[in-house]
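Q: Protein A?
A:
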Amino acid sequence: TELAVTATRSGGLAGAIGLAIEGLPAGVTVEGDPTIPADKNEVKLTLVAANDAAVVASAIQIRGAAELDGKQDDKQDDKQIARTATAAASGNLCPRTDEQRRTTQVLLAMTMTPPFELRLVDHERQRAVHRGTTYRAEFEIVRKNNFVGELQLEMAAQQARYRQGIRGGTVDVAANADRALYPCFMPEWLPTDLTRRMVVSGVAAVPDPQGHPRYLVQQASGRITMILEGALLKLSAAAGEPTLRAGETLDVPVVVARSSKLPLPVTVELVLPAELAESLRAEPLVLAPGTDRGMLRIAASDNASLQGDWPLTLRATALEENKWPVVSQTEITVRFQNRTTDESRTAKKIP
């Protein structure tokens, strides 16, 4: 790789500037003479990595030295001047001084080329996907350089558009496998007037020339493009504005609407935030095919601190092929009252 170094000359300094790079990893050298020629202000240093160099990252510094040709420098007692090169520092979002905008260290990172390609089958096709369902995209794994190991498919951290809840997990691909399905979950609240594009990457652990395992990432050749259609499942709850006291139970009527494409049992459950996990419980309610109504019972512990209005999430899930979730959610607001509050109100009543 090439690294450009620029010198800003002043005071009539025109001679050659010798450069030295400190901190280079073992196996990395500078090609040729690292010098800014006389009367020149820039040079491109070529860094070369040996075939057996370990894949590591190292902070390097570049120092330059030049003769003053008899002129006296106010920072040096001899006739040679030395400076450390600086680069733009991007980590400080609010620098106070010009010095904070520069750094004297640059991170040099060694890399390896992933020994595989991840090709999306029918990558130019736009797929129709129902909201609230899981779409399975097929990928072809093209292995190179005799790579036969395991790898994983992951949703890329940076997507092409707003995520709005679209997500995919981690899929393990067995050694020697050349095909894999990647599940893309599309929440039921996504609008139908925009396509969704999922970016997927492959990750494999490959030893470097020194035998150290390194994780190599290769982005797929195409994005999974999906256009949203209507949901297959809809959950609703006719709870009104219920009140639940500590130590008591609350029955919440729930209704599910299924498409004819989804003749499956549906499990309705209460999704609790962490702060309510010890205070509430509800056994999941299973609605068999052909059954669209039921009662979800929520039980409250005898917790004196459980009070006030809380939004609670109810989730309905059906599993296509016994593993691909179709999900619908709704929310109810429950007012919690503890016994201490009730007793206090009773004591204040005028007979």
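Q: Protein B?
A:
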Amino acid sequence: MRINILQHTPNERPGLIKTWAKKNQHEVYIYHPQQFHIFPEINETDFLIILGGPISVNDPLTWLTNERRLIKTALKKQIPILGICLGAQQISKVLGAKVIPGQVKEVGWAPVYLREQLIAGLPEKLDVLHWHEEVFKLPDQTKLLFSSKLTQNQAFVYQQNVIGLQFHLEPTADNLREIVINDQDYIKRSALKQTAAEILTHQVPEQNKAAMFTILDYLAANQ
């Protein structure tokens, strides 16, 4: 299977997604649309993954529009899609929902809680990395998967082959360090009130790897 990944910023990498792909002997192709304005061909896409980034989906940028056009085509062809943070917001916008400023800025480690058992094997609670201040409204015909105390819409499932996650399960310990050291100014004014040092010293839970693999397995099975 060919997995095409859209990476929007150098310090938010695929992390555990690549670990899963290697374990299952899938090919990974990583595109950098903001930098190179190149997108995968839809007929060369078995699984589309859209990562996070510091951009707002509401910014008037041509490459963001082109990315949504790709997502729309993938939806029509029923290709499995996983969106993380900005990626989830892009999917929600394509599905007709608004992306708006959240009531609070959520940056750091905090739990999310399962709202409905839509995917076998996901736990009732996960301690995950948050790195956002905008949030998506829940699109029509989607089901809410996770919520946090500060943000209700943390994850959704659409038609069994599309998942959007506002939070991050994919970072390894190395990825976490890269995110924090390069984007630590963003931590300021977070409602979670964690310092860069506190975020860095928090161990990446092993449970997050299991949850990431469960989600990827679920989507791959619905190819």
